[in-house]
């Protein structure tokens, strides 16, 4: 594979995975600009190590681990206080553990990774509404106005997203 093909493949991979990796970084550090920087650092590391990636079984899992580690390092070095995510039907499953129980932390991280993958499987409109309301804390009216739809449509999309996520996550 020549350099131009590598760049094109990398750009495609970036486009496919950026949002997922951003959510993972944001989960750990709760700061948008820092989460963006974390993801960009992860992609920089991937590009620098692109010739070694062929040896990996799962590049996606490797990216999740890199993102988590980079986010934890950022959180540690910037000494940010954790802020809880906006409440949602799912947040109780994804909050970082304060009791330093490694087994519970691992279960929580695995469930969060499943949640991120499940979000990507939602229909576009349902995913956008769910993220806007449950993760960004916007009101139904704000989302309806932004999308140019009625509040009832926003509610229907949100309910579709919640139902689908519960099914995908076996909740």
Gross morphology is globular
Any guess at the CATH architecture of the largest domain?
Orthogonal Bundle
Mean of residue pLDDT?
78
Topology as H/E string?
A: HHHHHHHH
Would you report the number of β strands? Answer: 0
Which key phrases capture this entry?
Arc Repressor Mutant, subunit A; 8 helices; 74% helix; mainly alpha; globular; 2 domains; Rna Polymerase Sigma Factor, Chain: A; 171 residues
Kindly describe this structure.
It contains eight helices and no strands. The chain has 171 residues and is mainly alpha-helical. The chain has two domains: 1-83, Orthogonal Bundle (Rna Polymerase Sigma Factor, Chain: A); 90-171, Arc Repressor Mutant, subunit A. Helix 1 (3-29) packs across helix 3 (59-78), helix 2 (32-48) packs across helix 3 (59-78) and helix 6 (124-135) packs across helix 8 (151-168). The chain is globular. Mean pLDDT is 78; it is low at 79-88.
């Amino acid at each position: 594979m020549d350099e131009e093909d590598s760049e094109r493949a990398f750009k495609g991979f970036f486009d496919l995975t950026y949002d997922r990796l951003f959510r993972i970084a944001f989960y750990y550090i709760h700061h948008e600009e820092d989460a963006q920087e974390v993801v960009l650092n992860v992609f920089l590391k991937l590009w620098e190590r692109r010739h070694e990636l062929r040896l990996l079984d799962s590049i996606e899992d490797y990216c999740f681990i890199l993102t988590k580690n980079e986010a934890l390092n950022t959180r540690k070095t910037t000494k940010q206080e954790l802020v809880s995510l906006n409440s949602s039907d799912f947040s109780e499953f994804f909050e970082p553990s304060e009791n330093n129980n490694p087994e519970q932390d691992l279960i929580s991280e695995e469930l969060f990774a499943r949640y991120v993958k499940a979000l990507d499987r939602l229909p576009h409109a349902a995913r956008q509404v769910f993220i806007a309301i449950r993760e960004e804390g916007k009101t139904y009216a704000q989302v309806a106005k932004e999308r140019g739809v009625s509040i009832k449509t926003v509610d229907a999309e949100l309910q579709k997203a919640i139902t689908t996520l519960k099914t995908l996550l076996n909740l």
